[in-house]
C-alpha cells in the first residue's frame, strides 16, 4: 500500500505567514475534498485568495496540500494541487528550516509502542494486546494511511476507554495529529509516554 507522506506545518510558521505570502494562483480554482482530480468540489476560489497551508501530501502525480481559505468570512478547508498555489517556494524554504514530522515517522513510532500487557509480562514472554484490540489498532493504522484519521480516531477512542494502553494511545495521537487536532495528539502521546517511555514517540511529541 502506497503511503502518503504528510509534512506537519509548524504553527509558528503558519502564524508568521503574511496574507499574500501563499495564495490562489488563478480564478475559478477548485478547492476539493481530496487530492484526486475528480474529488468533489468544496468551493470555487478567486485568484489572490490567501491560503493557510495545513500539511503537504506527496505520492500523487502532483504534490497536494491541505489548506484553509477564508471565503465570505468563513474558513473553508480542502485540498489544492501545488500548481494552483502561488508562493510555495518561500513556504518550502521556511518549512525545510523548521522542524517537521512525516506521517511515516509518526506511524513508525506508534507501531513500535509496546502494549501494557507486554510491559507487564515476564521477560521472554510474548504477551500483547488482546486480539480484538490488535484488530482495531491495525484498522486504525490502515485508515490513517488512507487519509481517514477521523475514522481511525473514532474506532480507537472506545477501545482506549476500556484500556489505557500506550500502543493504543500512541496510534490515537497520530490519528488526532493527522486530523489537525494537535492539542489532543499531544495529550494522547503524553499519556502514552507516562505509561511507557518510548524514545520514538518522545521525539515526535517534542517536534510536534
Quick structural summary:
The chain is of the alpha+beta class. It has helices at residues 11-15, 88-97, 103-111, 116-120, 131-145, 149-162, 166-178, 182-195, 199-207; strands spanning 5-8, 23-24, 29-32, 41-45, 51-58, 64-71, 74-81, 85-86. It has two domains: 5-97, SH3 type barrels (Roll); 103-207, Tetratricopeptide repeat domain (Serine Threonine Protein Phosphatase 5, Tetratricopeptide repeat, Alpha Horseshoe), CATH 1.25.40.10.
Strand order of the largest sheet: 1-5-6-7
Strand content: 15-25%
Fraction of residues in helices? 40-55%
User: Which regions contain 5 or more consecutive residues with pLDDT less than 50?
Assistant: 1-20, 119-127
CATH superfamily of the largest domain: Tetratricopeptide repeat domain
Multimeric state of these chains? single chain
Assigned CATH architecture of the largest domain: Alpha Horseshoe
Number of strands: 8
Separation, N- and C-terminal Cα atoms: 26 Å
Tally of individual domains:
2
Mean pLDDT metric: 77
Tell me, what is the CATH class of the largest domain? Mainly Alpha
Largest sheet: 4 strands, antiparallel
Backbone structural class: alpha+beta
- Describe the global form: elongated
Enter the CATH topology name of the largest domain: Serine Threonine Protein Phosphatase 5, Tetratricopeptide repeat
Query: What is the CA-atom radius of gyration, in angstroms?
Result: 19 Å
The secondary-structure element order is EHEEEEEEEHHHHHHHH
How many helical elements?
9
Amino acid at each position: 500500500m502506497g503511503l502518503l507522506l504528510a509534512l506537519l506545518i509548524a504553527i509558528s510558521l503558519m502564524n508568521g505567514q503574511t496574507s499574500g505570502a501563499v495564495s490562489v494562483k488563478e480564478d475559478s480554482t477548485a478547492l476539493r475534498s481530496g487530492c484526486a482530480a475528480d474529488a468533489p468540489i468544496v468551493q470555487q476560489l478567486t485568484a489572490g485568495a490567501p491560503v493557510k497551508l495545513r500539511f503537504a501530501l506527496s505520492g500523487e502525480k502532483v504534490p497536494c496540500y491541505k489548506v484553509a481559505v477564508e471565503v465570505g468570512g468563513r474558513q473553508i478547508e480542502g485540498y489544492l494541487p501545488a500548481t494552483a498555489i502561488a508562493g510555495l517556494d518561500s513556504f518550502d524554504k521556511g518549512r525545510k528550516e523548521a522542524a517537521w514530522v512525516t506521517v511515516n515517522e509518526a506511524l513508525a513510532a506508534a507501531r513500535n509502542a509496546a502494549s501494557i500487557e507486554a510491559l507487564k509480562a515476564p521477560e521472554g514472554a510474548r504477551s500483547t494486546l488482546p486480539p480484538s484490540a490488535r484488530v482495531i489498532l491495525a484498522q486504525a493504522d490502515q485508515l490513517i494511511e488512507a487519509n481517514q484519521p477521523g475514522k481511525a480516531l473514532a474506532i480507537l477512542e472506545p477501545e482506549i476507554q476500556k484500556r489505557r494502553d500506550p500502543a493504543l494511545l500512541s496510534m490515537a495521537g497520530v490519528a488526532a495529529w493527522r486530523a489537525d487536532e494537535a492539542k489532543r495528539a499531544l495529550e494522547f502521546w503524553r499519556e502514552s509516554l507516562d505509561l511507557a517511555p518510548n524514545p520514538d514517540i518522545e521525539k515526535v511529541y517534542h517536534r510536534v
